[in-house]
Here is the input.
Amino acid sequence: MAVTLKELAVRVGATVRGDDSVLIEGIATLRNAGPRDLSFFANRRYRRDLRETRAGAVLLAPEDLDDCPVPALVAANTRLAYALIAELLHPLPAVEAGVHPDASVSPEAELGAGVVVGAGSVVEAGARLGAGVQVGPGCVVGRDVRIGGGSRLVASVTLCHGVSIGCRVLIHPGAVIGADGFGLALEEGVWHKVPQIGSVQIGDDVEIGANTTVDRGAIEDTVIEEGVKLDNQIQVAHNVHIGAHTAIAGCAGIAGSTRIGRRCQIAGAAEISGHLEIVDDVVVTVGSLVTNDIREPGVYSSGSPLMPNGQWRRSMARIKQIDELAKRIKALEQRLAELGE
Amino acid sequence: MAVTLKELAVRVGATVRGDDSVLIEGIATLRNAGPRDLSFFANRRYRRDLRETRAGAVLLAPEDLDDCPVPALVAANTRLAYALIAELLHPLPAVEAGVHPDASVSPEAELGAGVVVGAGSVVEAGARLGAGVQVGPGCVVGRDVRIGGGSRLVASVTLCHGVSIGCRVLIHPGAVIGADGFGLALEEGVWHKVPQIGSVQIGDDVEIGANTTVDRGAIEDTVIEEGVKLDNQIQVAHNVHIGAHTAIAGCAGIAGSTRIGRRCQIAGAAEISGHLEIVDDVVVTVGSLVTNDIREPGVYSSGSPLMPNGQWRRSMARIKQIDELAKRIKALEQRLAELGE
Amino acid sequence: MAVTLKELAVRVGATVRGDDSVLIEGIATLRNAGPRDLSFFANRRYRRDLRETRAGAVLLAPEDLDDCPVPALVAANTRLAYALIAELLHPLPAVEAGVHPDASVSPEAELGAGVVVGAGSVVEAGARLGAGVQVGPGCVVGRDVRIGGGSRLVASVTLCHGVSIGCRVLIHPGAVIGADGFGLALEEGVWHKVPQIGSVQIGDDVEIGANTTVDRGAIEDTVIEEGVKLDNQIQVAHNVHIGAHTAIAGCAGIAGSTRIGRRCQIAGAAEISGHLEIVDDVVVTVGSLVTNDIREPGVYSSGSPLMPNGQWRRSMARIKQIDELAKRIKALEQRLAELGE
Here is the structure.
C-alpha cells in the first residue's frame, strides 16, 4: 500500500511543507528511513538524525521545520498524528473470520455478528460476546462473561466467570481478569478463605497489558473506568477503583480497596497500599511507594538514589542512625545557644 | 436460596439480636444492602454506614451492637463467620462433571472419582489426580504430576512435570508451578544452564494466586507447607521453603534457598534476598527489602517516604551525602567539646 | 543409568582423588546423599556437611579436598562440571515425537525435521519452526513467527505474530514475547493507542523465565542478544536492547528504549527507567532503582535498610527533614566558625 503525503495530511488533519506527491509505503526511524518511508521527530535528542535523514518525509511539529531536509508533514499533536498513520500503513495481520474448528465454544454461549474465536480457545456457557469481538488463540472466556462489541483478546487471555468487559477493550496475552481477591480470615493461627463474590467491570476503550492481573471484588466489583491504560505485569487487587483515562506503567501494584482518580499517571513499579484515596491528576514517579492518601494533584516520588555499592553500604548504616543524628544536631544547637548566652 | 437469620446463626455458631425469622438471600455492603441482604460490619471507618443501613441484618461483633438499627448476627470472629455465610449464599458456579470432550487427557494418566477436566486442558502421561480434583479450562498438567483430592486449578494453570500438589489446594489462573529455577554456571563470560533436577512440593490447603510462579528446586525440592496463602504475581525461587500458615501478598519476590518461618505475614511487593533465614511469626511491611536474616519475631520495614517531587529530589541529593553529614556532626561535637574545655 | 567416577571425570575434564570405580546413579545434597550419589560442594557454609557426608563421591575444587572423607571429583570450575553431570544423570523427561493429535497446526506453517508440538498448542499460518524445535503443551505460536533449530517452549508460552527466536532458546511457561509495547498519545485528556509496528528479536542460547514479558518495538525491534538469561516475571518494555550474556534475576523491570550492555548482572526486583544507557559489565544489586545512565562498569545499589517498624517510622520522618537537617549542620558550622574567631 502506498499513499501520497497529501493524502496522509488530509487523513490526519496535518499540513505539508514541500512536495506533497511523495509516495509513502511505511514507517521507519530517522536514521533508517528510505525514500518511501515516513519518519517521526518528537524527541529532541535525535535532532541530528533529523538533519541527516533520508526519509521520504518527516512528521514533526511546526517549530522543528527548520531542521528538516526533506518534505514535512506538520501537525500540532505529532504523536496522535503518528498513531493514526501507523494504524493506516501497518494494519494488524488479518484474522480468519468465525470460530476456528479447534476452538471449544459452548452451545450456550451467545456470539454476536462477526465474532472470531481462535484455535485452542474456550468459551463457556452463558458468555455473551458483542459484534466483532475477537478472541485470539489460547484464551479462556468463563461462564457468564460479557464482552462489548469490538473488543479483542489477543491470545492466552483468561476471563474468569461473570466479569464484564466494555467495548473496544484490548487485552494482551497472559492477562487474568477476575481471579479471586486475596481475602482471608484468621482463626487460631490458620487462614480461612473468604469467598470473593464480587466481579470485575472494565469500561470501554481500556487496554490491559500482558500478564496483568485484575482481581474480582470481595462483595462489590473491582472497577476500571473507561479509557484506562494498564501496561504489563500490573497487579490490581480486589475492589480497587481506577478513574477514567488513568495510565499505569508496568509492574505497578495496587492493593485492595484503593481508589485512584481520573487522569492519573502511575509510573512503573510503583506500589500503592490498600484502602487509600488518590485524587484526580496525580503523577507518581517510578518505583515509588505510596502508603498514605494523596489529597492534592501534583507529582509525587519516593525511593533512594543509586550509588556505587561501597557508598551505599555506608549510607545504609547512616540511615539507620538518622533519628540519632537529628537528636545530636538538636543537642549541638542547644549547647551552642547556651555558649552564645 | 433463602435462609432465616436463625438458621445462619446455627450454621456459623453466632447469636441473633432482634427478629431471627428475617429471610436472607444474599450479601451486600452496608450502603447497598436491601431487606433480603445480610451485611457485614468490621471496619470502623464505615460506622456511619452501619447506623444508616437498610440491610435485612448485619453481621458484627458484640461491641458494635449499639450502632446497629436492624437485626444483628453476633459473632466473636466476624470475618470467619462471614466467610462461612458467603460460601453458603454465593456458591461457585456449577462445574460440568467429567472430562470435557475438548480436553486432552493421556490414557496413561490416572483420574480419581469425580475428577473434572475442562475444555482445552492437557493432562500428560503419568499424572495422578485424586478424587474430586477440578482442572478448569486451559490448564496443563505435566508428566507425573500428583494432585491431592479436592484440589482445584481454576483455569490456565501450568503444573510442570513431576510437581506434587496437596489436597484442597486452590490455584488461580496463570500460575506456573515447577518451572526451572534460575541456575547458571559462568565460564569465560558465557552462562551455562545448570539443570534443575529438584521438584516442588505444595502442602494441603495452600492457595496460589494468579500469575504467581513457584520454581522447581536445583537438587532438592522447593517446599510450600500446608495452609500457606500466596497472592498474585509472587515469585518463589528454587529451594525456597515457606513455613505453614504463612501469608504473602501480591508482587512479593523470594530469592533462592531462603527459608521463611511459620505464620509469617509478608506484605505486597516485599523483596527477600536469597539464602536467608526468617524465623516464625515475622511481619514484613509493604515494599520492604530484606537482605539479612531475621532472627526475632516482630514487625520489620524498609522503604523511603513519599514526597512531592521537588522535595524528594533535594532529599535524594542529601542522602548521597549522609555519611559526610554524619562526619560533620561528629566534627562539630568535637570542636564544641574543645571549646567547652 | 550408572556411571563410574572415572567415566564422569573423562566427560567433564575433571580428575579423581580416591577410588575411581565408584558407581554413580544420581545427584543429591551432601546431607542426603547415599553411596550411589554424587554430591557437590561449593558453598563454604556447608563445610560441616562435607566432612560428614556419606555420598559415593563429591565434586569439589582442589582447595577443599582436605575436608572430603570420600572419593572426590576435582574440577577447576565445579559449577560448570556440575551442570554437565546433572544433564547426563538427570535427563529431561522424554517428549513424544511429532505433532500431537490435539495440537492445532496451520497447514501454512513450516515445521522442520523432528519438530514436536504438544497437545493444546496452536501454531498459526506462516510460522517457521527449525529442526528439532519442541513446542510443549498449551503454547501459542503466532503468525509468521520464526523459531531457530533446537529451541524449546516448555509449555503455555505465547509468541505473538512475527517475533523471531534464535537457536537453542529455552522459554518457560507463561512467558509472553511480542505483546504490544505501551505506546500512547494524549489528546485532550484521552489516551490514544500508538500502534506497535516493530517486533522482537531473541538471539541464540537465550533463556526466558516463567511469566516474563518482552514487548514488541514501537517502530524498530526490541532486541535480546545471544546468551542472555532472564529469570521469571521480568518485564522488558518496547525497544529495550539487552547485550549478550547479560543475566537478569526475577521481578526486574526495564522500561522502554533502555540499552543494557553485555555481561551485566541485574539482581532481582531491580527497576530500570526508560531511555537509559548502561555500559558493559555493570552489576546492579537487589531491589535497586536505576534512573540515570550508568557510564562506568562496577557494582551499584540503592534501597533503604530493613529496620524494626518503630525505628523505621521515626527514620521516615527524619528522611523527610534531611534537607533541613543538612542546612542546620551548615548553620552550626558557621556559628561555630564565628565563635572560633
Q: What stands out?
A: Residues 322-340 of chain A form the longest helix (19 residues).
